[in-house]
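Reminder: ligand-aware prediction takes two inputs, not one.
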Amino acid sequence: MVNWSAIDTVLLDMDGTLLDLHFDNYFWLEHLPIRYAAHHACDLESAQQYLHNLSSSLQGSLNWYCLDYWSTQIDMDVEALKIEVRHLIHFRPGTAEFLAFLQAQGKQAILVTNAHPKAMRLKLQASGLDKHLQTCLSSHDFQLAKENPGFWDRLREHADLDYTRCLFIDDSLNVLRRAQAEGVRNLLHVLQPDMSQAIRPKAEFPGLVHFTELMAP
Ligand SMILES: [Mg+2]
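Here is what comes back for the chain with magnesium ion:
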């Protein structure tokens, strides 16, 4: 599936790729609406509708991922709310083995996430992911989300990357399409970002369900 002799660097998404997206889905769709309804003294349905509308209006922008922006908008400490359910932060199957494989192969592994730096820190600490990666980058430090035009040019300059020798793995089609448009040659699409949900259909990129598929001799 991957010609490893042609790859020097692996760029890795965090949520839905290395980590199970179940945490995020549970937090935004279940935990936050319950806590919002209690805090603002409204019914759960109104809370769900308000949060859904706010989320839809922000989709694709860096603010959608920005904990500080959300905290201001809903007048609640979103980081603290996430910490309440941090026990749900887990690796996707095969993550530790795959990162060990990359290290053994002498490949550079770089985390490239849209998660806000506070969310990234929480996830790294809760999962132990930081022990397996040399570099962890949040798109907030580049002032653009990964699906925004120009993000990948900024990343290449910052990390001094040769995109013809990079592999990028992500569960978001919009992000993969943007990376491809800006020159990242090898792309893999994670088809089961949330392990509690069904495998998604393959799209225009090679699909990946389990990391063991990439570790075949
Ligand atoms: Mg993701």
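The chain is about 40% helix and 10% strand. Strands lie at 9-12, 108-113, 135-138, 166-170, 186-190, 207-208. We will return to this case in the review session.
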